Predict the structure of Taurine--pyruvate aminotransferase.
Amino acid sequence: MDGTFNENDISRVVEADRANVWHHLTQHQPFFTGADPKIIVEGKGLRVWDQKGIEHIDAVSGGVWTVNVGYGRETMGDAVRDAIVKMNFFGGTVGSIPGALFAEKLISKMPGMSRVYYANSGSEANEKAFKMVRQIAHARYGGKKHKILYRDRDYHGTTIACLSAGGQDERNAQYGPFTPGFIRVPHCLEYRKHEQDGAPEENYGEWAANQIEEIILREGPDTVGALCLEPVTAGGGVIEAPEGYWPRVAEICKKYDILLHIDEVVCGVGRTGEWFGYQHYGIQPDMVSMAKGVASGYAAISCLVTTEEVFDLFKEDTSDHLSYFRDISTFGGCTAGPAAAIENMRIIEDENLLQNTVDMGHYMVDQLKALQDKHEIIGDVRGKGLFVGAELVADRGTREPAAEAMVQAVVKDCMSQAVIIGATNRSLPGKNNTLCFSPALIATKDDIDQIVGAVDGALGRVFG
Ligand SMILES: Cc1ncc(COP(=O)(O)O)c(C=O)c1O
């Protein structure tokens, strides 16, 4: 390696990657026994090109439901460039022009919310919320009301505290011991209610919410500070809560004075066809975290948004030198994130992408449901907007999950057709059996036909 780079010789990059990069979520051994790491070189719209020049359609918005407005947006690049050339960074104790303007725009989309706290990643935004809950507990309740409830199958990030709030046992395996004070509540996946003791045929949503109340009563309501939930569970299997769930959840939180923290890291900024997932359900959260779609991956940004009531708790007592939120995120002071986020929101509005998400989401669900008639292996199709899952089962009667290796073989087969789809993986022991789709919000019917056509072929080849 002499440090020079010949653009026509991408093999130089592949070798540098193989020698020096540690990829996320990846077993590297195959890269030393014949396989090359994949390098994504360029993107435009829904398409990306790899090091061999092969064009792929990306049905998962950058692998992890992020690039909501699609690749190669010059105005996003312009917005970031203009912001950073003028003023790239100053620590978040002071304000910035993009930071103030994006906060104002964001709050205009979130009635009832009022304050934006900037950070870098979804995990970090969730950590901010956890810290606020703990600090409120100390300031007002002698430290007692500090417990944070999280739900089976939900994911809130990769740090130890976020994994402590993680409902995916396989993802958590080998990373304990975890932070105390995080308490699990049951999932609300109706398709798997037969695995939950006492789940009724009717009113499952209300029943699932009532399970949360039982846990609050078991723990003692005076010990529980917050409930943290994904509006639609993402990596845990694309789970939309059934009817009756959310109103009951909101009622329970109010009854026991428990803060409702909604993790919109995946759903936020358009993915489900509303600006935020929770807005489908008429509920009013106290805290909302968001990251991926906020700037569609053009810059790193996450936000924790709170109500004015929560904010007020941190400025009540000026005589107490500990009474404000004593937290910082160095790169929460970067202007690239909010500058990109302003442009990202403008694109979604000007191109009417929320409506497109609703329309194309319905189309995608319909197309996948049509595949169900053809492939016995598809047990359930579900989703909200352009956030869709297809759960594969070895037996439709018993709903026995399809083997993870077979599900991964479907993903691999699609990749060999240059179609990038996702699947739940290494998350839930024995239940990593849901194919995941989250194309950019600009997707067209033709794009969806191409994606679903590839899945059709793959299912035929893998399962016969
Ligand atoms: C629902 C949810 N919350 C939080 C996170 C963590 O976000 P990050 O990877 O940006 O830390 C993720 C990541 O996938 C997520 O899906």
Remarks:
- Residues 353-374 form the longest helix (22 residues).
- DSSP finds 14 helices and 18 strands in the chain.
- Residues 60 and 440 are 7 Å apart (CA to CA).
